[in-house]
Amino acid sequence: MDLPFAESYKIKAVESIKKSTREEREQWIKSAGYNLFNLKSNQVFIDLLTDSGTGAMSDKQWAALMMGDESYAGASSYYNLKNTIRDITGFDYFLPTHQGRAAENVLFSALIKEGDIIPGNAHFDTTKGHIEYRKASAIDCTVDEANHTEEYFPFKGNLDLEKLEAVLKKYPKSQIPLIIVTVTCNSTGGQPVSMENMKAVKEMADRYGIPVFFDAARFAENAYFIREREKGYENKEIREITREMFSYADGMTMSSKKDAIVNMGGFIGFRHKDDFEKASQFNILFEGYITYGGMSGRDMNALAQGLYEGTEYDYLNTRISQVAYLGEQLREKGIAVQYPYGGHAIFVDAKAFLPKVAKEEYVAQTLAVELYLESGVRSVEIGTLLADRDPNTGENRYPEKEWLRLAIPRRVYTNNHMDYIAAALINVFERRESITKGLRIVKEAALLRHFTVELDKI
Ligand code: F0G
Fold it and tell me: Which amino acids are annotated catalytic?
């Protein structure tokens, strides 16, 4: 008999989570204005709001904390992290930051000016936010396959080279300070970019004289997919793959809260000293001196250890198999999800799930509320609430896809939890015909409304 799949770690510390009754949840979600961000964590049984900063650190990471060097300048923890980053990415220069969006803020302060154009593959919200805040524009060049939810395509994070070249031809070099490749691409469902595509993007960028930066929050999960799906990589070590990936970039921004399995932290990696020097002044201004930039020494130590653990094959196999284990149960029942499954989350197609709810009534948010009421599982809307209003017309922007994201924290839940989540969503699916009404907005902020919006049932 083949031995069954089993996790590549065992559990040393546990945290209690509390089940609740449907009556309690009805009360809580009403008081929260039907916004899951407003729930208290003890009102949630299984929390799939995000995989960011929610992972479980290892015994070695906790041990590394004790060895942190809190010197203001030149701490050994900084050099420890610097050597690790060089080993995994090949980048000689780096700046620590307190999280991923801080890395974007520092890097973009150095590179982006008003009127600039930044092509990429479905830029993450904070990335786009930092671009638009500088009165520049993000242009999405993702392959069309990313929108064909149920059709298999191995690299739904890829950039469409024709779309990219059209942008590079249309605008002068002086107006395109960088191309951003997000690995994996969160916004299309945690979907990977192939090595072939990274290489082709870099070759094209070099021809036009434009630098390429990776938004590398989930770079290790991307490397795992390359190993699984791309010819020639099946026997390679994950770190060999990451080094080749980063060889096609001039730098990177990192939210360490994802694939480096720490609760807080980020950094920028640079190939070129002049980029590093340009960004350093903004790091000192916004984050902190260049050898700590918003991170304590102990946290840099835990991050260095996390980068190694996050790039181990057995860990990645455990993690990504768990996400697929959940996806498979939903897909078997006919629930439309982004397929193949992403690295960090299952993205449920809410419009296909709730066809009777009008788009003006926040379809994915309606589904998130139903799932919470059913089970105490907290998910997140990636749909009209997140897409926000058009700043010029004030009208809602309706994105092509209304996603319900089930983001899986790293090393936190077991497959029994996955069974529970699947059963809960399947229960909602089985009564979907009866869900015909959605939500309406009662109160919203002018910017980033999804975090604080208050809604009511229609
Ligand atoms: N880039 C990507 C691809 C991300 O997914 C995120 C965060 C960031 C940048 C920003 O990093 O949060 O450390 O400032 N994504 C989280 C999520 C919030 O839930 O997907 P940060």
Answer: 72, 124-125, 215, 217, 258, 450
